[in-house]
Design goal:
By secondary structure, the protein is an alpha/beta fold. Helix content is 30%, strand content 23%. Strand 6, helix 4 and strand 7 form a beta-alpha-beta unit.
Length: 213
């Protein structure tokens, strides 16, 4: 119990260490920056519990090793990456101030992929908000997100997407993305929907089609 307490203190309060699942340099596969090179950092820990989640191994933070932010960003900075994408799990679970400071110190752009379930920490160059019905974003995200990306598993999710889009005063980058296990079924549905509602764009998981990390 004592070891677990110190694990939680390190991760949640101080943010000097994060539960690291994986890190890799690749091409962004989704949304606004699809096709662009980026260094991905995936952190563990998520209590939202999407039934279709394709990274369920990320749910339990204590299954993954704690890595210092200096170690993580030093490895990213050894690549030609001009942007770092922090994803999860749910990154806003943690204090991300130390991570963002370290990213900025290396003059790399900081991108965040989040459901917005928890208050934002850190300074970000780009925020992709991907809201989940079971735990909606904190209100601040509707003022600062650069991109809204809603995962669509069935047609009822389109109502959720429209409700979330209506909470923004001004946002241009609206994406609908078919949930991968049903992409063959839902992609034609989304194509037809976007033809009728051209404020939306289609996001496909390019990395899965091309079989890249």
């Amino acid at each position: 119990m004592q070891a677990y307490y110190f694990f939680m203190t390190d991760v949640f309060e101080y943010g000097e260490k994060l539960p690291l699942i994986e890190e890799f340099y690749t091409l962004q596969g989704e949304g606004y920056h699809a096709g662009s090179a980026a260094y991905f950092i995936r952190v563990g820990g998520c209590d939202i519990g999407c039934r279709w989640c394709d990274t369920k191994l990320s749910w339990r933070a204590d299954l993954h090793r704690l890595a210092t932010v200096a170690e993580i960003i030093a490895k990213a900075a050894s690549t030609p990456a001009k942007a770092i994408v922090v994803t999860g799990g749910e990154p806003t679970t943690y204090n991300l101030e130390p991570l963002c400071r370290e990213i900025a110190r290396h003059h790399i752009r900081a991108f965040l992929e989040t459901s917005g379930a928890y208050p934002l920490t850190g300074k970000w160059d780009w925020i992709c908000l991907s809201p989940k019905k079971q735990q909606l974003p904190q209100p601040e995200f509707y003022l600062i997100a650069n991109e809204l990306k809603v995962i669509i598993q069935d047609v009822d999710d389109l109502e959720h997407a429209e409700r979330e889009a209506s909470k923004f005063k001004n946002i241009e980058n609206l994406y609908l993305q078919p949930e991968w296990s049903k992409h063959q079924e839902m992609t034609p549905v989304l194509i037809d929907y976007i033809r009728k509602h051209p404020q939306w764009k289609l996001s496909v998981q390019l990395h899965k089609y091309l079989n890249i990390p």
